[in-house]
Fold this sequence. Notes:
The chain is α/β, with parallel strands linked by helices.
Amino acid sequence: MKSIKSIQNLQNKKVLVRVDFNVPIGKDGVVGEEEDWRIKATLPTIEYLLKRGAKIILISHLGRPGQYKASSTLPTGRQVKYQACSLRPVANRLGELLNCKIKFINDCIGDKVKNEIEKMQAGEIILLENLRFHKEEEENNEEFAKELASLADIYINDGFSVSHRAHASVSNITKFLPSYAGLLLEKELEILFEAVNNPKRPATVIIGGAKAETKVPVIEHLMDKFDYILVGGVVANVILKAKGIDTGKSLSGGIDLTEVQKIDLNSKKLYIPVDVVVCNDKKKIISLSAIGKIGDNKILDIATETANLYSKIISDSKTIIWNGPVGMFEKESFAFGTKEIARAITESKCYSIIGGGDTIVAVDKFGYLDKIDYVCTGGGAMLEFLSGNELPGIKALG
């Protein structure tokens, strides 16, 4: 994988940079300061290119818009959907952060885009419209990738968080341009590689949240690499179920239990909840229950004894990787466990890495985000990496 730093001459070069500007847009059509951390994360790469006189063309996706091409002639309903997924507010926020004008073009391919790029001067920045307005992006369509590549001289992947996707702007595009890793992509890979392969010990991974099918492989892969594996959320539910422990009406994510049973469920490294917070179907009756005594209720958080056990392990750890809250933290009644995990991490002397949208939102909500050592921009990509899988976007860079 070649680094952006290995490019000898960037002066007047048209550089196509794949970033992840998939950030929340407020109802007022503005990207707020509390939501722009993904934009800020890629500023070092943009500033690196600016200082070397490149012509910078930024490409990204935002949300899941389906096929809504950038057009003002869309029917009213689709126009609203288009506007909600447009990157125009991101261009405004990026301009504020860089204190310069960002030109926004309401498509990512076509003659209009090419004509505007041909007019660019060294040190100028253009942000193109949402790639996913074209279905060919997610199809990894080679012709679409070729058309994107025709806009530039060099391609930079600076989106670790999309590098687990075999999409046209991440994977196929590298066939048509000299391709390099951006500073953010390099940094994320370096931090995760070191944390997984050479962690300071004791090393602990905390896995929670939903989507058990993407998280069980992480546990399986890291079992021999880490000293402690703490689980919560739906991930804990499926492990409890695989061990033959009753979980009542708790969510189990639909994962095949034979996949869960590939894990060494009796490993002394694997820690599962010993007590939980449960409620009935209407979430009106809330109580603490020992594991195995759930009845007709649902598990929605870890309880005091489990939180104390996990906190003790965390306090003794030197490396922590955390992906996925351990309860339904959005509701105060079920936020205790996730808040206690966040508190324990920030009070310990460990090197901490967190990833995943819900985890980041939770830690930020509880006021601990600025005390985390590294916040990974990509939850899905992080999980793929932690599972030992090769990421298409990284493989494509050679």
